Protein backbone atom coordinates (compact mmCIF):
# COMPACT_ATOMS: atom_id res chain seq x y z
CA UNK A 1 0.00 0.00 0.00
CA UNK A 2 1.54 3.26 -1.12
CA UNK A 3 -0.24 5.62 1.28
CA UNK A 4 1.23 8.83 -0.12
CA UNK A 5 -1.14 11.59 -1.15
CA UNK A 6 -0.04 13.25 -4.37
CA UNK A 7 -1.39 16.40 -5.99
CA UNK A 8 -1.95 15.68 -9.66
CA UNK A 9 -2.13 19.33 -10.72
CA UNK A 10 -2.75 18.48 -14.39
CA UNK A 11 -5.90 16.51 -13.45
CA UNK A 12 -6.88 18.88 -10.59
CA UNK A 13 -7.08 16.06 -8.09
CA UNK A 14 -5.35 14.59 -5.07
CA UNK A 15 -4.58 10.89 -5.41
CA UNK A 16 -4.02 8.01 -3.01
CA UNK A 17 -2.75 4.81 -4.64
CA UNK A 18 -3.67 1.58 -2.88
CA UNK A 19 -2.35 -1.41 -4.77
CA UNK A 20 -3.69 -1.11 -8.31
CA UNK A 21 -6.58 1.13 -7.19
CA UNK A 22 -6.67 4.92 -7.00
CA UNK A 23 -8.80 7.00 -4.62
CA UNK A 24 -9.13 10.61 -5.73
CA UNK A 25 -10.38 13.97 -4.47
CA UNK A 26 -11.12 16.48 -7.22
CA UNK A 27 -10.70 20.21 -6.73
CA UNK A 28 -10.59 23.52 -8.51
CA UNK A 29 -8.92 26.78 -7.60
CA UNK A 30 -11.35 29.67 -7.25
CA UNK A 31 -10.65 33.18 -5.98
CA UNK A 32 -7.50 32.07 -4.17
CA UNK A 33 -9.23 29.14 -2.48
CA UNK A 34 -9.27 25.40 -3.08
CA UNK A 35 -12.77 24.11 -3.76
CA UNK A 36 -13.05 20.38 -3.01
CA UNK A 37 -15.70 19.18 -5.44
CA UNK A 38 -15.85 15.37 -5.49
CA UNK A 39 -14.24 12.34 -3.87
CA UNK A 40 -14.09 8.84 -5.36
CA UNK A 41 -12.99 5.64 -3.63
CA UNK A 42 -13.12 2.46 -5.72
CA UNK A 43 -15.68 -0.11 -4.57
CA UNK A 44 -12.86 -2.61 -3.98
CA UNK A 45 -11.51 -0.30 -1.23
CA UNK A 46 -14.85 0.47 0.38
CA UNK A 47 -15.06 0.14 4.17
CA UNK A 48 -11.29 0.20 4.70
CA UNK A 49 -10.93 3.83 5.81
CA UNK A 50 -9.32 4.84 2.52
CA UNK A 51 -11.61 7.85 2.07
CA UNK A 52 -10.70 9.09 5.53
CA UNK A 53 -6.98 8.62 4.85
CA UNK A 54 -7.38 10.54 1.60
CA UNK A 55 -9.33 13.36 3.28
CA UNK A 56 -6.80 13.69 6.10
CA UNK A 57 -3.96 13.80 3.57
CA UNK A 58 -5.73 16.44 1.50
CA UNK A 59 -6.43 18.64 4.52
CA UNK A 60 -2.88 18.22 5.84
CA UNK A 61 -1.39 19.06 2.43
CA UNK A 62 -3.57 22.14 2.15
CA UNK A 63 -2.78 23.16 5.73
CA UNK A 64 0.94 23.12 4.89
CA UNK A 65 0.17 25.40 1.94
CA UNK A 66 -1.87 27.66 4.23
CA UNK A 67 -4.77 27.26 1.81
CA UNK A 68 -8.35 28.33 2.36
CA UNK A 69 -10.85 25.57 1.54
CA UNK A 70 -14.44 25.38 0.37
CA UNK A 71 -15.71 21.82 0.88
CA UNK A 72 -18.50 21.37 -1.68
CA UNK A 73 -17.96 17.61 -1.71
CA UNK A 74 -20.32 16.10 0.89
CA UNK A 75 -17.69 13.59 2.02
CA UNK A 76 -15.02 16.26 2.56
CA UNK A 77 -17.53 18.55 4.29
CA UNK A 78 -18.54 15.74 6.67
CA UNK A 79 -14.88 14.96 7.35
CA UNK A 80 -14.23 18.61 8.23
CA UNK A 81 -17.20 18.65 10.63
CA UNK A 82 -15.92 15.51 12.37
CA UNK A 83 -12.38 16.94 12.62
CA UNK A 84 -12.62 20.47 14.05
CA UNK A 85 -8.83 20.87 13.86
CA UNK A 86 -9.44 21.75 10.19
CA UNK A 87 -12.34 24.17 10.73
CA UNK A 88 -10.13 27.27 10.67
CA UNK A 89 -9.20 26.43 7.08
CA UNK A 90 -12.79 26.46 5.82
CA UNK A 91 -14.57 29.23 3.95
CA UNK A 92 -18.25 28.95 3.19
From TrEMBL:
It comes from the Bacteria. Residues 6-91 form the N-acetyltransferase domain. Pfam families: Acetyltransf_CG. This is N-acetyltransferase. InterPro entries: Acyl_CoA_acyltransferase, Gcn5-rel_NAT, GNAT_YJDJ. SUPFAM superfamilies: Acyl-CoA N-acyltransferases (Nat) (SSF55729).
